[in-house]
Specification:
mainly alpha
Length: 131
Amino acid sequence: MEIKRLRILRLGREIQNDRFSILYFTCKDERVPLYAKEFTACVVAYVFSPIDLIPDFIPFLVYLDYVILVLLGIIIALKMMPKIVFTDCKCKAEAMMKNGKQKNWIVGSIIVLIWGLILLWAMIKIYRLLN
């Protein structure tokens, strides 16, 4: 039973990684309507958000969040894209995957900086509480 869950999650992550590359390129394309870009941004924001519609403490339903909701959002976002844009962006995403994924050092540095500031803030608060 546990192996099936892991396979489902791994399959979901693989599909998401492929589709996120396509969504990345479609959001940068001028031919994509604004409503499609906004919906895509909401899907991506939900994936990276620490707040889930289905709480993580519910044992089985937590998988529905990632397998059904996120994949459904990705599918709907891709259906909103014009066909020609989708095929162009799919080719770009495949080329990017062959060459290796891009590394965005600036965004990564900003995320590390934010976590460092949160950690520093928490340490200062704890120090003040103890003294």
